[in-house]
């Protein structure tokens, strides 16, 4: 199987489990700061030939939050440790373009790319919460679309810094005593609306050219940003027809930016609930719903929607919310769910609390593989971000049961073909803006 024909799989690595109460099940990991647990997850993902593990991040903590987010390791610090304990798995961490400087970020992610021999990716987030703003001297974050304008310039600077060393700039020629070729190291001299950055970076170009850029926004501004920069997009989708429409539209938008559509992979979150039989899986799903406690469920829903959801009648239909309160991608999911006949606020909060709004795939490994096959082969996605309820339980079961079923159907690789995250995702090595174009090189921006 070539990399191009394999679906792509990542895992949402949250040691306490993505289910809000996953950590309470006997045998589950209980801390998102436990390096042994996090190493186990990375190694299981690698044994399953996953493209990458993904670590989310936020810049605040409050005691009512999801347990995996109250205390967690800074993603690139964690990924650096994991890069020493794994060999092939891609390592995608989250960092905020609103509360970091581009030079720091470019260096941080480039360092991981060197440590891991080209396995690093950066999930660009703009950080919407008031709590995070409070940790950076502000009462509120910059306005939504302004954050994306800042993010666009931020990414331009970061990519410029990653290009500031051409391949072959380090000579280390003992004979002549020349360590570098100054003609291959470039200042950026960026003076923009938000950032002034001279460059060059004090980190050379890595073996995959540049770390992979990932993005997960679904608003108009988020999608415009993604079509320009994202090489992978994480989505929250429940409905296959909506997912197909999103896929088609996004690939067109990517092409309109002068990029090859296959250079941007679309990966919806998939929440697997696995049993030996469909019936056993349904019983497990019911137990996941029973484990939801009302207060934390409402907290998750409020945080997802950017609106305090306590005080509404849980057994009534979903109320209309003020549009300005919506965090767009989740609001779209709620809109889809709310249209289902008889759907109440309680149904919606259960879905948010159990699966964090990701698509639930409940059944035997074959049933789950059927759903994944349908989405993948009908043009709804390029693969999935697997969002396990518990670790190690659900994820180990996925790798032991569902992955072989996907491999048997020739939908997923049985062995790694390449070594870098770009190789796994089928992404081309990016051209360096400072280097003379190689003969016959693609003019695609992302190539
Ligand atoms: C799979 C996935 C992972 C995400 N990870 C993070 C994260 O680690 N940190 C964060 O602040 N936001 C994260 N988000 C939220 C998005 O970056 C984005 O803020 C949200 O989808 C709203 O975007 P929009 O305003 O463009 O609709 C994630 C979203 C998804 C779907």
TrEMBL record:
Q: Name one Pfam family in it.
A: Bac_luciferase
Looking at the record, the residues that make up the Luciferase-like domain are 18-379
Which terms does the record give in the GO molecular function aspect?
monooxygenase activity
Source organism superkingdom: Bacteria
Read off the Gene3D superfamilies from this record: Luciferase-like domain (3.20.20.30)
UniProt entry keywords in alphabetical sequence: Flavoprotein, FMN, Monooxygenase, Oxidoreductase
Residues that span the membrane, as ranges: none
Q: Which InterPro entries match?
A: Diverse_substr_monoxygenases, Luciferase-like_dom, Luciferase-like_sf, NTA_MOA
Q: In the UniProt record, does the keyword Flavoprotein occur?
A: yes
Q: Which SUPFAM superfamilies match?
A: Bacterial luciferase-like
NCBIfam families referenced in this protein's UniProt entry, alphabetically: FMN_nitrolo (TIGR03860)
Family under the similarity heading: Belongs to the NtaA/SnaA/DszA monooxygenase family.
Output this protein's name. Answer: FMN-dependent oxidoreductase (Nitrilotriacetate monooxygenase family)
């Amino acid at each position: 199987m070539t990399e191009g024909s394999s679906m792509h799989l990542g895992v949402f690595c949250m040691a306490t489990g993505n289910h809000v109460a996953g950590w309470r099940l006997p045998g589950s990991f209980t801390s998102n700061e436990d390096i042994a647990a996090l190493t186990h997850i990375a190694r299981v993902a690698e044994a399953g030939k996953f493209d990458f593990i993904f670590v989310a991040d936020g810049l605040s903590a409050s005691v009512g939050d999801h347990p995996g987010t109250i205390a967690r390791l800074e993603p690139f610090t964690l990924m650096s440790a994991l890069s020493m304990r794994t060999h092939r798995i891609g390592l995608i961490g989250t960092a905020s373009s609103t509360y970091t400087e581009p030079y720091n970020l470019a260096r941080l992610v480039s360092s991981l790319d060197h440590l891991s021999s080209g396995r690093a990716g950066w999930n660009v987030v703009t950080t919407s919460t008031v709590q995070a703003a409070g940790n950076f001297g502000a009462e509120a974050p910059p306005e939504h679309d302004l954050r994306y304008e800042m993010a666009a310039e931020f990414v331009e600077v970061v990519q410029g810094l990653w290009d500031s060393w051409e391949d072959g700039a380090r000579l280390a020629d003992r004979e002549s005593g020349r360590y570098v070729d100054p003609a291959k190291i470039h200042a950026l001299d960026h003076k923009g609306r938000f950032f002034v950055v001279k460059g060059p970076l004090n980190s050379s170009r890595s073996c995959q050219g540049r770390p992979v850029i990932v993005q997960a926004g679904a608003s108009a501004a988020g999608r415009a940003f993604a079509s320009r920069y994202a090489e992978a997009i994480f989505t929250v989708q429940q409905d296959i027809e909506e997912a197909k429409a999103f896929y088609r539209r996004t690939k067109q938008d990517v092409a309109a930016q002068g990029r090859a559509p296959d250079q941007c992979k679309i990966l919806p979150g998939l929440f697997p609930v696995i049993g030996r039989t469909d019936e056993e899986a349904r019983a497990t799903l019911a137990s996941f719903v029973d484990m939801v406690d009302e207060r934390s469920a409402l907290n998750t829903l409020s945080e997802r929607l950017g609106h305090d959801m306590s005080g509404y009648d849980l057994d009534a239909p979903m109320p209309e919310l003020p549009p300005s309160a919506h965090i767009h991608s989740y609001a779209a999911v709620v809109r889809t769910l709310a249209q289902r006949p008889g759907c109440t606020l309680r149904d919606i909060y259960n879905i948010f609390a159990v699966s964090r709004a990701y698509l639930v795939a409940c059944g035997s490994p074959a049933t789950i593989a059927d759903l994944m096959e349908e989405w993948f082969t009908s043009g709804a996605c390029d693969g999935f971000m697997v969002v396990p309820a518990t670790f190690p339980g659900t994820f180990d079961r996925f790798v032991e049961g569902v992955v072989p079923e996907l491999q048997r159907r020739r939908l997923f690789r049985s062995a790694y073909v390449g070594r870098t995250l770009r190789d796994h995702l089928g992404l081309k090595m990016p051209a360096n803006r400072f280097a003379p174009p190689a003969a016959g090189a693609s003019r695609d921006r992302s190539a």
